[in-house]
Design goal:
Structural class: alpha/beta
Radius of gyration: 21 Å
Distance between the termini: 14 Å
Largest sheet: 8 strands, parallel
Strand content: 15-25%
Number of strands: 15
Length: 400
């Protein structure tokens, strides 16, 4: 039995998402990677004195950060589209001209599984360097069975290459592949009847995701995909209401989705439906910033109805080439007016809920994995207000 006592900590447990006041002179006892005891040092069991002791020297400690929405595994980049945007092209115009998601498909298909792992690792390392212990990774750049499976296998392999928990999402409904440009029904049938059953049988995905938007898939199409996914026992999440209000938030709620993500155009009915269903609102300020969106997500409506709010990098090659969770917290505060507590909860306990992992991660509580981020800061607000500053002193994943 491996046991470690992390002592002399100023602990922000996030067990209560609204409370970021540190517990002074606190300690965490981990046994076999899980938290066995947490609280003031004086309350630690007497047997804890015989285990390996790690002195955190009075530093601030939070749960390890969770990046609950990324497209980390892909081939190539889309820097040329960045130049087009600077010249005035919109997201929709670039997509309609053959750019956007489809432009990454050829590079991803050509990369192969090993190439996808190799290109994703540097991006993952940036997340880890800022305290991330759990990361979600989507497919959606292969758009055929072979390449979607390669993306998902590559994502699974990341957890063998680094000490990090990886959750995977199958995003075959991201865009129409070039070979099905004139056959939507054919691709949807392939996705539902062939791709989904194979991916479910092989255990490659923890969730099924879809992009519900005018340039992607309609609410009716997504409804069919989600119904098929749920029959196979897969949980669902949704890219919803990013560019227009197509009722995506309410659609996600009807299917009991773990989360609906983006949500700039969500209305009050959608926010209320999400709250009632327990669907987490995942806000993505990197994409909002990068595509120069002006419509703010309805944060006040989520607060009013009690929907939990998470935040994430949305790391992807086209609309959010961002690998800094600390910058995401700053953006969420400055652009979306989230509080410091909301930002921290959004990158910890609420992010865990968005992945269906809140029973194991997201807060420093007995029974959960001992995932810790140790910071050289005085106050939690420093994690949110600084820009281009990484105060991470240490990171522990499952007690190591």
């Amino acid at each position: 039995m491996a046991a470690r006592l992390f002592r002399n900590a100023r602990l922000v447990t996030m067990a209560d998402p609204a409370c970021i006041t540190p517990v002074e002179r606190a300690a965490v006892l981990a046994v076999d990677g899980r938290i066995a005891c947490v609280g003031p040092e004086a309350d630690m069991p007497a047997s804890a004195s015989s285990v390996e002791i790690i002195d955190l020297e009075g530093r601030l400690v939070t749960p390890g950060l969770i990046d609950c929405h990324t497209h980390l595994v892909h081939g190539g980049d889309r820097a040329h589209e960045f130049e087009l945007r600077l010249a005035g092209a919109s997201y929709e115009e670039i997509a309609q001209a053959g750019g956007g998601i489809v432009s990454t498909v050829a590079a991803t298909r050509a990369a192969g599984e090993d190439g996808l792992v190799a290109s994703a690792l540097p991006r993952l390392d940036h997340l880890i360097a800022e305290g991330v212990t759990t990361v979600e990774v989507k497919s959606g750049y292969g758009l055929n069975l072979e390449s979607e499976c390669a993306q998902l296998r590559a994502a699974r392999r990341l957890s063998a290459e680094r000490k990090v928990t990886v959750s995977t999402s199958f995003l075959g409904a991201h865009a129409l592949p070039p070979e099905f440009r004139n056959d939507r029904a054919g691709y949807l049938a392939l996705l539902r009847d062939e791709m989904l059953p194979v991916i479910a049988a092989e255990g490659l995905a923890d969730c099924v995701d879809a992009f519900c938007e005018a340039i992607a898939f309609s609410p009716k199409e997504v409804d069919g995909i989600f119904s098929a996914a749920r029959r196979l026992g897969l949980k669902v999440r949704l890219h919803a209401d990013q560019l227009s209000n197509r009722g995506g938030a309410a659609l996600a709620a009807r299917h009991g989705a773990l989360s609906a993500d983006h949500l700039e155009h969500t209305d009050e009915d959608g926010a209320a439906a999400m709250a009632a269903a327990g669907t987490v609102a995942v806000l993505l300020p990197g994409a909002f910033y990068f595509i120069r969106e002006t419509k703010l997500p309805p944060v006040d409506l989520f607060r009013k109805h009690g929907a939990r709010i998470a935040i994430a990098t949305d790391c992807n090659p086209g609309t959010s080439p961002l690998t800094s969770p600390l910058l995401v917290m700053n953006m969420a505060a400055t652009l979306f007016r989230l509080t410091v507590a909301e930002c921290l909860a959004g990158m910890t306990i609420h992010a865990a809920a968005a992945l269906g992992l809140a029973q194991d991660a997201g807060s420093i509580e007995v029974g959960k994995w001992c995932d810790l981020a140790v910071w050289d800061v005085e106050r939690p607000a420093e994690l949110v207000y600084r820009i281009g500053f990484n105060p991470l002193a240490a990171r522990y994943w499952r007690g190591e």
